[in-house]
Amino acid sequence: MTSIVWFRDDLRLADNPALRAAVDRGEPVIGLYVLDTSEKVRPLGGAARWWLHHSLADLGERLRERGGALVLRRGRAREVVPQVVQDAAASAVFWNRRYGGPAREMDTALKARLRDDGVEVASFAASLLFEPWTVRTGSGGHYAVFTPFWRACLHLPAPRAPLPEPREIVAPQTLPRSDALDDWALLPTNPDWAGGLRETWEPGEIAAHRRLDAFLADDVDDYDRARDEPAAGVTSGLSPRMRWGELSPHQVWHAAAASGKDTERFLSEIGWREFAWHTLFHAPDLHTENLRREFDAFPWPRPHPAALHAWQHGRTGIALVDAGMRELWHTGVMHNRVRMVAASFLIKNLLIDWRRGEEWFWDTLVDADEAANPFNWQWVAGSGADAAPYFRIFNPETQAQKFDPQHRYIDRWAPDWADVPPLVDLGDTRRAALAAYDEVKRSRA
């Protein structure tokens, strides 16, 4: 008999409870990854597809080194998984839990269907430090503000220790049919716009651990002091590693604790990630609907395609915004401080719906996930959990003076900034944004 491990956003061997359960069962193991084309599954953006290709290639190689195998299939997961179970004559299927609404519905239905067919099915906690249903307010609800949420998390039992990776994984003699990874065409070819991604990143589990070790050995010392300075280079670089599950939050948590360094500020960012996922668990339409429904009354003007295009391509004439948008296009990430500034400019100076910005980031970020991406956009817009007040409008010129006073970041990514005329007047558009937000306030009165 055979056990199947259904990999999703947990592309690693170490600290993978589903894989550990399958190996401990003592039967041959097949790894399965499904490129899900189900209607309710949000299609991956271009940068995410690039990362997925390389992370799957790494996972397949690491499984083969230990005697295992990775089967790739494309299609509706609710149909593909039972078919692979049948093809492999598998007696058990294991996976790590997901927390988005459609994913949970699919997993629940699949678990029931497979069990009806006599297949053992088990799911495990692997992607979050704290399961969403374990963190509750005193009245039994869920938290809408980060600080009390994280305080409540820290009063729960400490996150479990990471599991070691299996030394040996035995594959069955005969494997089910597998797609070829190249046939999925996840990599851009015509044109090939991924040169900057290749320069910047090395996806995969081993590279993820190298980055974690390097950050804790060096950059974390300056993290609290310089994390808001985009030219300082002290960000962790771990967000895509955690988004794809090449690292688990338990590994990051315990490595930080064992470092002997002051990692409280850094770990609070891991807490922010948890907060985003807990929010998505309770609001599965986070990327399309305002969490604070009173913001449905916001009077978005008619879309302005030219302004949106200028923002997307770093041609607004606002130096810090343009630098950030060009960094995003080249590297697939943007410094967090600059992300907030660029998002605020789109929403509150250009008066473009936050959903348009979220869609662009979804397509261009290598670390875009279904929780953090819309959660952070709604935070900036003022429509989300623990949101910035509606009147908080980041002034990109003031932000540049404070966090990039020597223009090191701006000159790197937007050296022609002085030659691009500003798209809008920051003062006039700020006043227009405040007037529009007043309409939201009046709608609540």
Automatic annotation (TrEMBL):
UniProt xrefs under InterPro entries: Crypto/Photolyase_FAD-like_sf, Crypto/Photolyase_N_sf, Cryptochr/Photolyase_FAD-bd, Cryptochrome/DNA_photolyase_1, DNA_photolyase_1_CS_C, DNA_photolyase_N, Rossmann-like_a/b/a_fold
Coiled coil stretches, renumbered: none
Details of cofactor binding: Binds 1 FAD per subunit.
Chain segments annotated as transmembrane: none
Domain annotation Photolyase/cryptochrome alpha/beta: ranges: 1-129
One annotated GO biological process: response to light stimulus
Binding site for FAD: 223, 235-239, 266, 367-369
Protein name: Deoxyribodipyrimidine photo-lyase
Native source organism of the sequence: Microbacterium ginsengisoli
